[in-house]
Structure formats: structure tokens, C-alpha cells
Specification:
Strand order of the largest sheet: 1-2
Largest sheet: 2 strands, antiparallel
CATH architecture: Up-down Bundle
Number of strands: 2
Order of helices and strands: HHHHHHHEEHHH
Radius of gyration: 18 Å
Number of domains: 1
Helix content: 55-70%
Distance between the termini: 33 Å
Strand content: under 5%
CATH superfamily: Glycerol uptake facilitator protein
Number of helices: 10
CATH topology: Glycerol uptake facilitator protein
CATH class: Mainly Alpha
């Protein structure tokens, strides 16, 4: 599979599972209505697992421009590939958000909650303080990228020294990492920790004919872009310093 196609498909599945669980919890009349934060963070983590399983063998399953940037800073990924990967991740995120809209279209129609509808597609702060919100995204993404960089090169060996691959189970550590970030650090901003995850679905919210959707809150949209990119860069620089 072409690596760019892999990034599109992996990110699409990630957003379908991630935005999908928020829709299931928030929208009126769903079976998962009011399911709560544990349900949301668990599905986002498992969405990462699915995306990594699909894309990992072909692209490395970055699924996130911040991860691509962090790997490029440490020399583990070519800077020339970053724009193509980021574009593919944006396309995949837009497709995933569109599928969520199609899947829950009837429930969007009967739900009178503009803020909740926006939260399905993108992040919003619990308390709007741009400096604090920015710092939250920096810290959350720092943890994500620094630990992901720490995963690089890890492998198991049998007694003869032959490398033993984990196959799809190699996606499990990343899923657990995203889960704990959501549980511990997600309450302030909704833990975008991924510019593509927020920007492309926010654009789909603006473009799609969602009844009673309200504003797409573009004044906040720079936070889940600048914060994750900054956090990824800091994580990569620290990794280079201490490795």
C-alpha cells in the first residue's frame, strides 16, 4: 500500500472511532447517550489501535502531523515527506468526520445542542484561557511524542537472538499511551494532541449541512495546531538531548 494512502485510511479510521464515540455519547436518542468520559477516552485509544494496525506496515502510522514533525526533528523521518504525510492525515481526518456525520445524521437532526455538535468534530476548552489551553496541548503532545520516540527501535528477541515481531500487538502501547493521556490530561481542552484531528473535522463542521450547528469557533482553532506542534518539537529536542 502507498504510505500516503495508508495515512489517509489510518487517520480516517481513527477519526471515525474518535468522533464517532463523542457523537454516540452526546447526540440525542443514541444507545450510548451520556456514556461519559471513560467511554470517550477508551474509544479514542482503541481508534488509535485500529489506525496503527492498518497503516503501520506501510507508513509507520504517524496519523498525526505532530508525530511526523517529532520524528523528523530526531532524524528518524525525512523532512521532505512531512508535507505529504500531513496532507494525507488531513484528508483522512476529513473523511472520518464526514462518515460520522453520515452515520449519525438522524441524531444530529433531533439534537438541540450546538456546542455538543461542535464537540463531536473538534476540541473546545472547558475553561477558555488561551495561554492555559495552549500549555495543556503542549504538555499533552509532549508526553505523546516523547513516549512514542521512546518506543522506536524496541523489539523482543528469543534466546537465539532472532527478533520476534509483535505484529498488530505493536499498536497496543500507542493505544494505551493515548488512553492515559486522555484520562489524565484530557479534561482541560479535550486533548487534541493532533493538528489534523482538530483542523480537518472543524472544517467539515463548517461545511456540512448540520442542522442547528452554530459556530465552528475558528478563534480557538489555532490552539490545537500550535500547541501540538510546539509540544512535539520540545519532546523531540529533549529526546535528542538525553538519549
Amino acid at each position: 500500500m502507498n504510505p500516503y494512502i495508508a495515512e489517509i485510511l489510518g487517520t480516517m479510521l481513527l477519526i471515525l472511532m474518535g468522533d464517532g464515540v463523542v457523537a454516540n455519547v452526546i447526540l440525542k436518542g443514541t444507545k450510548g447517550n451520556n456514556g461519559g468520559w471513560i467511554v470517550i477516552t477508551t474509544s479514542w485509544a482503541l481508534g488509535v489501535f485500529i489506525g496503527v494496525v492498518v497503516a503501520g506496515p506501510y507508513s509507520g502510522a504517524h496519523l498525526n502531523p505532530a508525530v511526523s514533525i517529532g520524528l523528523a526533528i530526531t532524524g528518524q523521518f525525512s523532512w521532505s515527506l512531512v508535507p505529504g504525510y500531513a496532507f494525507s492525515q488531513l484528508v483522512g481526518a476529513a473523511l472520518g468526520a464526514f462518515l460520522v456525520y453520515v452515520f449519525y445524521r438522524d441524531h444530529f437532526a433531533v439534537t438541540d445542542d450546538p456546542a455538543g455538535k461542535l464537540a463531536i468534530f473538534c476540541t473546545t476548552p472547558a475553561i477558555r484561557n488561551y495561554w492555559s489551553n495552549f500549555l495543556s496541548e503542549v504538555i499533552g503532545t509532549f508526553v505523546l511524542v516523547f513516549v512514542v520516540l521512546s518506543f522506536q527501535g524496541a523489539h523482543l528477541e528469543n534466546v537465539e537472538g532472532t527478533q520476534v515481531g509483535l505484529g498488530s500487538l505493536g499498536a497496543l502501547p500507542v493505544a494505551l499511551l493515548v488512553w492515559v493521556i486522555g484520562l489524565a490530561l484530557g479534561g482541560a481542552t479535550g486533548y487534541a494532541i493532533n493538528p489534523a484531528r482538530d483542523l480537518a473535522p472543524r472544517a467539515m463542521h463548517a461545511l456540512l449541512p448540520i442542522p442547528g450547528k452554530g459556530t465552528s469557533d475558528w478563534t480557538y482553532s489555532w490552539i490545537p495546531i500550535a500547541g501540538p506542534c510546539t509540544g512535539a518539537a520540545l519532546a523531540a529536542l529533549l529526546f535528542l538531548l538525553v538519549r
